[in-house]
Amino acid sequence: MKSLKYGLMAAAAFIALPALAATPEDVLKTYGDVAEAAYTDSLKSAQDLQTAVEALAANPSEETLAAARAAWRKARNPYQQTEAFRFGNALVDDWEGKVNAWPLDEGLIDYVDVSYGDSSEANVFYTANVIANPILKVGGETIDATEITPELLADKLQEAGEVETNVATGYHAIEFLLWGQDLNGTDAGAGNRPATDFDPANCTGGNCERRVQYLKAATALLISDLQEMVDAWAPGGAARADLVGKGEAGGLATILTGMGSLSYGELAGERIKLGLMLHDPEEEHDCFSDNTHMSHYNDVVGMRNVYFGTYKSLDGKNDVAGASLAELVAEKDPALAEEMKAKLDASLAAFEAMKARAEGGEAYDQMIGEGNDEGNAVVQAAVDALIDQTKSIERVVKALELEEVAFEGSDSLDNPSSVFQ
């Protein structure tokens, strides 16, 4: 009986022990799991987009074009939540330009309105129009584009002439093909390409077979590029290995570099404040589809994912919930943990307000238009929330005693007068 009583007491004591706090190793594993899940959803939704593109090609109609556009919008949601992995992870940053580069000089790809102009001193490929020209002779270079393939887009046309705005691949090239140019400025309306642009039997815009060929090639390339990143974040993949190789402190610094850089320089600065200052619809991320509010909103969701160690998958089968940076901060400085959560919640609320306004009928490019004081204020509130949030991220860096963490900046925030020079 004595031994039994001792055993029961020991078991009770064991049950009463508090759960072990999250460790940096656990946090980094969750971070990798969130990345893998988000890129996996990005790949799956791109494959769904490919199915819709094939249906459009087989039976061009306003219905199949609308379905392809809806599939593109859906595909953007998980991908934009991955952007917090870009900064700090060199492997991701080096790859990102293949799938999400913007803005693009659309005259490289297809026909454009006369208002676009016919030349650019900075870009000899400005109106190359690969869809209309099987053989491109530009700047003393001849490119055989007789067959539009993923290899042609990736190897010959992406950043042709070493010009960053020669974007031939990725989400925004596909977006332009599905919507066409948005010629509405800061008035209502997105791009309005007709389905007959993809119909060789009733062709508008010319070269319909080649336009379909380009759309299929760009979509296939997007899938192969996303597969590369899924593999990189799988257990044993290159991205996970890079993260482990940095050590625990280096890995935590990577998470915070991604959050801080996306929050401040990239999203608050380059993607939002710059366009707001200039009242320029060309400075919106998804400019052909008027989907910018959703891309910005999902960037904010993505930052929350990496901080709280969670991810909500498209089908509910790939959800992640694990050890988080939030737990490490709470253990180190509970007050700062509450502050950081409050700032992240405030940012989410600001972007939910922007999203609600867009869903109510005023697109993002209208919100940033000159003279729209109310819309401008909604967008500025989002910028302010991100800047405020970044200050707390900086305090988290100090609380965790991490060194050499630098966030991306932006002239629109750090040197506004230079924007107008």
From TrEMBL:
Protein keywords? Signal
A cellular component annotation (GO) from this entry: cell envelope
Entry keyword annotation includes Ubl conjugation = no
Q: Where in the cell is it found?
A: Cell envelope
Report the residue ranges that make up the Imelysin-like domain in this protein.
36-392
**Signal peptide stretch:** 1-21
Any single Pfam family the record assigns to this protein: Peptidase_M75
What is the name listed in the Swiss-Prot or TrEMBL entry for this protein?
Answer: Peptidase
Alphabetical list of CDD domains matching this protein = Imelysin_IrpA-like (cd14657)
